[in-house]
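Recall the central idea of this unit: under ordinary conditions, the amino acid sequence of a chain determines the structure it adopts. In this exercise we apply that idea directly, starting from the sequence alone.
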Amino acid sequence: MYAIETNSLSKAFKGIHAVENLNMRVPEGSIYGFIGENGSGKSTTQKLLTGLLVPTSGEILLYGRPYTDPGVRARIGVLIETPACFPSSTVWQNLMMQALNLGIENPNAEIERVLRLVNMHAAAHRKFKHCSLGMKQRIGISMAILQAPSIVILDEPLNGLDIEGMVEMRNLILRLAKENGSTFFISSHLIHDIELTCDKIGILHEGRLLRTETMDHILRNFSSLENFYLSEVDVSVNSANAG
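Accordingly, the structure predicted from this sequence is:
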């Protein structure tokens, strides 16, 4: 089954398409890397999947059901751009508000669990506004994985992290996908980390999905994700120029 499926999905702003005719299939349990240059439509696509934006046209299905279905929407964890937190509240308080909003049973234990997963338990009582950019990113990830969601949508999850933090979060994503069977949909411009984390790759260019391949296929035929990405974008640009 596909965890995420889009059919002819489009989103236009004042007549200009940010996403155009997107047909995408994300298998259940996969770690799907969504890559593209700035302005290619990655964040717009993720906002469409999570209901933060309404499509101009097309269809979004999650586990074969409309993305607006309350039952399936409750199974999604999200971090897009920056975590929505109250600056003067502590890390723990922000997570508690999110846990109560989700109706999580035994929220104290669940908050303790996710803070330890992202290595933020020692800073639980620090105010959010006093956290570094990397710490805020960890908090956002912890909020996204509360209650072990079936689908986790992350926008640039390694943004602001140091090298150690990048390795920790990459390993955490791999662990949760394996242990919980969670599907991860990750957008990033950090090709190297996507290459080490994801098993399926989709290339977005100027709002259009150019190609989707498994990481195994890419490494066998292009030697690196960077070569695959550059070859696909080059073909797209040349085709557009020829037209």
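Strands lie at 2-13, 16-27, 31-35, 57-62, 65-66, 76-79, 151-155, 183-188, 200-205, 208-214.
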